[in-house]
Amino acid sequence: xxxxxxxxxxxxxxxxxxxxxxxxxxxxxxxxxxxxxxxxxxxxxxxxxxxxxxxxxxxxxxxxxxxxxxxxxxxxxxxxxxxxxxxxxxxxxxxxxxxxxxxxxxxxxxxxxxxxxxxxxxxxxxxxxxxxxxxxxxxxxxxxxxxxxxxxxxxxxxxxxxxxxxxxxxxxxxxxxxxxxxxxxxxxxxxxxxxxxxxxxxxxxxxxxxxxxxxxxxxxxxxxxxxxxxxxxxxxxxxxxxxxxxxxxxxxxxx
Length: 255
Prior knowledge:
By secondary structure, the protein is of the alpha/beta class. The protein is 42% helix and 15% strand.
């Protein structure tokens, strides 16, 4: 039996890329998975099934509390429990790095709405299903808050807010035996991230090149690198860890 046998995990932004890798990784350890995404998640569902577990796809816009609530209810109605929330949905791959003076309020607030409010609303949605038995909430941040990456102030600000939100929610949810932590990856090759340098508007070397040279472990990061930490934070092995940000970037930045 896997370490997550009998557990039910909701993973947002999991139709492709890093989110799908999380879904397959948790499924291999026995978790039943809810693929929650704006994109079609049927292919991810099939990949979870190939990994030996069950999955459903729920189309979800995390900026809508109503849709987040429906996502959590669908998970409970299908599988009878909600044990893990992995808050992965975010705006990233379609950001075109540009000088900060060229960003307007609407662009800035849209990233905050998806990346921060979206995570908060998903936490609110799963709380009724976790409050009596405990649970695991894993928010996906970014090591960019340590680096101060130029050209994307709204994204970096959103990921800094996620860490602050994690601390606040860990305080409020601790009495309910709910652990709330953040994983902070560096740039990782994925379906979204691979297009990142193609649309930038700043004269910078490729982001991967910049990070590769600065890492202690000098190789490219791939989604599979992130699965082990997500598993650890999903199991009882991390039962006494909460309110923390764990940087996962090959030694690019130290926190």
